[in-house]
Write a structure and sequence with these properties.
329 residues; alpha/beta; TIM Barrel; twelve-stranded mixed sheet; two-stranded antiparallel sheet; globular
Length: 329
């Protein structure tokens, strides 16, 4: 298995399929976009499936999350999902997407073997969406969410980031809407993973503020009285249930001690943490013809060196050079 020196075992693999995105969210990348990776640098469909196969059959990975950039931009996505679904043991599969294009692909993804989706949506107001993402695609995301639910890619989870001066007042409205449409809403604290390196802690809407806003309209009770395990989101029952709301508080309530994740970038590098400043190249070994046992050994060695935490609250913290769009969520 993928074990580190602190006794944590990675069973959840996040696979970035591309660094490209069709939105330009203000907290992620500049309006003009970023220099994208050249096609020869990207893992091919076969290489992605091969590395996932090694992870599942030799390293104890049980869950796969496809991310980006925007993973729906990957032309071979449905085929990749279908091939991974055929692995033994079959891993659970999900995708984190901005929802654009989901209306036309949800059914095909479900048929291929995808289990569920996480869709990013920060606002219910099309005008605010246009300012936040610099694109007029709010309607497409709403239609994508509906298509995912209708295709059975459930539970459909909605990820929202609150940004001061734009949508910070929308937390209760977002939750009411999610309950009405049977989506599971999760708020995510804004993290220092923007390409502009302009993140400031004082500008972030913290988990405590989100909870306070939600409690002006809803009765929230903790879903679990004890430890939540490796799940990144703390969850609360809404008005006694069955609906739930979650908060991923990577900055103010870090959950590193129970982390069970490892990440594969679209150019074939292993990251032991979202905020890691080091990466381990698997693409070179793969393309040189290294056997699966050797690739697994390299992967294990990388995970053995995983640090105890993200270091976000350490005064010496350095933001990773790669932004979120190049790392994957």
């Amino acid at each position: 298995m993928l074990i580190d020196t602190y006794g944590r075992a990675a069973t959840d693999l996040r696979v970035s399929l591309t660094d490209r995105c069709n939105l330009r969210c203000t907290y992620c990348m500049p309006e003009e976009g970023l220099p994208w990776l050249a096609k020869p640098d990207l893992l091919t469909d076969d290489e992605i499936v091969r590395l996932i196969e090694i992870a599942v059959t030799s390293l104890g990975i049980r869950e796969i999350r496809f991310t980006g950039g925007e993973p729906l931009l990957r032309r071979g996505l449905v085929g990749i999902v279908e091939r991974v679904a055929a692995l033994e043991p079959r891993p659970k599969m999900s995708i984190t997407t901005n929802g654009i294009g989901l209306a036309r692909t949800a059914t095909a993804l479900k048929t291929a073997g995808l289990d569920r989706v996480n869709v990013s949506l920060d606002t219910l107001r099309p005008d605010v969406f246009k300012v936040l993402t610099r694109r007029d695609r709010h309607k497409d995301v709403i239609e994508g969410l509906r298509a995912a639910r209708d295709a059975g890619l459930t539970p459909v989870k909605v990820n929202s980031v609150l940004v001061p001066g734009l949508n910070e007042d929308e937390a209760p409205d977002l939750l009411a809407w999610a309950v009405e449409h049977n989506y599971e809403l999760r708020f995510i604290e804004q993290m220092p993973l923007d390409a502009q390196h302009g993140w400031k802690r004082e500008d972030m809407i913290a988990a405590a503020e989100v909870l306070a806003a939600l409690r002006t309209r809803f009765d929230l009770t903790p879903e679990c009285a004890g430890e939540r395990g490796p799940a990144p989101a703390e969850r609360w029952l809404v008005d006694g249930g069955p609906h739930r709301v979650g908060i991923i508080a990577s900055v103010t309530r870090p959950f590193c001690a129970a982390c069970d994740r490892t990440r594969l970038t679209s150019d074939g590098r292993i990251r032991t943490c979202l905020f890691a400043t080091e990466e381990t190249d698997l693409r070179a070994a793969l393309r040189s013809g290294a056997p699966g046992k050797e690739i697994a050994r390299i992967w294990r060695l990388a995970m053995w060196g995983k640090k105890p935490g993200s270091g976000l609250n350490d005064p010496t913290f350095l933001q990773p050079e790669r932004p979120m769009s190049a790392i994957g969520g």
